[in-house]
Amino acid sequence: MVSALWGVHSHDAASRGQPMTHRRGHNSVPLGRRVAELRAHRGMTQQAFADRLGKSKSWVDKVERGVRRLDRYSVIRDIADVLRLDPDILLGPRQPPPTTTPRHDGINAVRAALARHHHRPQRTVTAQQASGQIAYAWMAYQHARYPQLLGTLPGLLDATGGTRNLLASTYRLTANVLVKLDHADLAWLAADRAITTAADDSTLAATATIALAQALRALGHHRIALTTALAAADTTDDDTVRGTLYLQAGLAAAGDGDRRNTHDLLDHAAALADRQVSDTDPHHTGFGPAAVQTARSLAAHRLGDTAEALLRHEHVVRADGWRHLPPEHRAAHLIDTARAYLDSSDPARAGQALLDADRTAPAEVRNRPVARTLLTEIVRGGPAAADVARLAATLGLTR
C-alpha cells in the first residue's frame, strides 16, 4: 500500500533499512506522510499502530492522509514513543517543540492540590466567600486568564472543599483550564473528581460530565466521550446543560468520523438552543445558538469539510449572538478557524484569525500550545504579515 501511494522509491528506501524521511528534504514531506513511512518502516500495520497508541485505525488513517492535523506535541511525542524515535525526527530541525509550548509553573501546584483531595486543609473562608471566589474564577476563565487561574486554583480547591456544589464546580473549572493548556490527562482526573463530588445531584453531575467529555476528546477517546456525554444528557432536564452535552457528543462523533451522528446530535442541540428563553447561564456553559454554530464549524472541519467550516465561520461572526459569547469561546473558535484556513492553504487569513483571537483573549493565543503551534507553522511556512511576525517574535517563536 505504501509503494502504491508514494512510488517505488519508498519501498526501495525501506529495503535499504532507512525510512524515506532521512533520504529526501525532511520539511518537504507532510507530517502525516512521514508518520506513515516510519510506521511502514517499522513493519507495523495501521491497526497495530493504532492499538499501541490507544487510537482507532480511522484516526491513524486520517493522520497519514493529512485529513487530521497533528497539532499537539503530546500526541506527537506518543507517536514517537511507539515508533521508537526522538520527536525531532517527526517534527524536523526547523520545528523544535520547546518553542511552541510555554512553561506553566502553576500546573505542578494544581496537580498537588488534586492529589490531596482526601486531606484538605481546614477552610478559612465562609461558604459565601468561597461562592464569591468561584464566581470570580469562572469570570476569569471566560476571559481566558489562564496564568492567573493556575495561581488561584489550588487555594480555591481548598477553600471550596467543604461544600459539594462549590467543590464540584471548582473541579470542573480546573478540568477546563487543564484541557486548554494541553494537560488532558490531568483534566480527566479533575473532571472525574467533579462527577464523584456531585454524587446523586443529577444536574450537577451532568454539568461535570461536560468537562469529562472535553478531556476525553482532547485525549482522542472520541467514542467514549460520545457515549459518556449522551448518558449524562439523559439524566438532566436543564436544557442548557443537556444542549451542551449534545454539542460535546456531536464534536466527539465528528472526531470519530461519524458524519450522521454528528449532524443528528448538533441538530438536537440546535433545537434546544432555539427554544431558550433566558440569557442567564448559571452553569457557565455558554450554550446558545452561536455556540451551536461554532460547534458546527468545528465539526465540519473535523469531518474534512474545510470549505463548509469556513462558510459557517463567516456566518457565525456576522450573527448577533457572536458578541454574546464569552471572549474565551470567541478566541477559541478563531483559533480553530485559523487551522481551517491553514488547511485550505490560506496562511494570510489564518494569521489574521490568530491576531483577532489575540485581541479578543490574549491568553488563548499566548498560553495555549495549539495556538502557538499554529503561529509557528505560519511564520515558518513563508513570509508572514508584519503583525503576525511581530506576535510570533513576542512569544519567542522565531529565531
TrEMBL record:
Domain (HTH cro/C1-type): residue spans on this chain: 35-90
Pfam families, A to Z: HTH_31
Protein name from the UniProt record: Transcriptional regulator
The organism of origin for this protein: Micromonospora gifhornensis
SUPFAM superfamilies: lambda repressor-like DNA-binding domains
Residues covered by region (Disordered): 1-29
Signal peptide: none
Lineage of source species: Bacteria, Bacillati, Actinomycetota, Actinomycetes, Micromonosporales
